[in-house]
Amino acid sequence: LTRLYGPLTALSNVRVDVMSALVSFERVFEVLDLAPAIAERPGAREIPEGAAKVEFRDVHFRYPSASEVSLASLEDVASLDRAVNDEVLKGVSFTVEPGQMVALVGPSGAGKSTTAMLVSRIYDATSGAVLVGDVDVRDATLQSLHDTIGVVTQDSHLFHETIAENLRYAKPDATDQELWTALRRAQVGELVESLPEGLDTVVGERGYRFSGGEKQRIAIARLLLKAPSIVILDEATAHLDSESEAAVQRALAEALAGRTALVIAHRLSTIRDADQILVVDDGRVVERGTHDELVVTAGLYAELYRTQFAVIDSPAPHPTSPAPA
Ligand code: ATP
């Protein structure tokens, strides 16, 4: 996504509704924390509190064309139009049962991020339906959808504000005690304690600069405060140093525990733990099953395993992950 829309993300003052149609996954999800351009239907229903099932029923999707999102004056239109007319999802169906972890894997451009975005209704399916807690997301109130789903991406965004303010986006009435608990569970409590201003430390270019792994842990603290029943996680591809990596993994384990999770997975350890792996290729789920089931087939998963996952994890395996078979 960043590859395609990098230039557009620079337009930081573009109206929010246009942005949410175009800019990258992580900014829409995390900066606006789910403020889709999509309108709430009159008489929309609440998703029941704690609802944790996700279902895709024959979902087809094509991105709106540049003209549909009023960007005709931008120079990037030509490159946008290259991609927009094709169906990106071509009949995707799956169910994530409450408490399950489902991993999406597949080649670049296969449609994994798009699938994840449809759950939060950043866009609507062109046809078919996406259900959260048995409610079609088009019939759900945006607030209840927002409350049910939390997102952690590779590129976590923090505002140029204090740590406390950054955290209270998730829970405005959280006490300082709650903020500290979330920070500790997210493995960043000690670091914040060591800062002279503690929770009042201003974050960002003119403030305290957290590393990528630290920012991600603050974002995980935010998710823990929000306590959604469903988590969407875009797992990091970039390698952090091994200490940060281990801390991020511990924080993520806290974030995912007891929740339904849809993970765009890049780590063998995650994929091995998944209740179900969906192998996405060219907008379709081409294989599904557990690691043990899929690795013995001669399909795309087995190939990805050999060429990517085993290779990625083998030089420096996560301490808790078993060595590749
Ligand atoms: P990666 O692993 O590289 O992130 P992915 O499997 O997540 O890939 P998507 O990002 O969902 O794939 O992209 C699926 C297809 O949709 C690609 O062809 C991509 O170029 C296209 N695409 C993604 N975002 C948009 C957008 N906002 N507008 C138009 N096309 C898009």
TrEMBL record:
<feature type="domain" description="ABC transporter">
    <location>
        <begin position="72"/>
        <end position="307"/>
    </location>
</feature>
<dbReference type="GO" id="GO:0005524">
    <property type="term" value="F:ATP binding"/>
</dbReference>
<keyword id="KW-0547">Nucleotide-binding</keyword>
<keyword id="KW-0067">ATP-binding</keyword>
<protein>
    <submittedName>
        <fullName>ABC transporter ATP-binding protein/permease</fullName>
    </submittedName>
</protein>
<keyword id="KW-0812">Transmembrane</keyword>
<keyword id="KW-0472">Membrane</keyword>
<keyword id="KW-1133">Transmembrane helix</keyword>
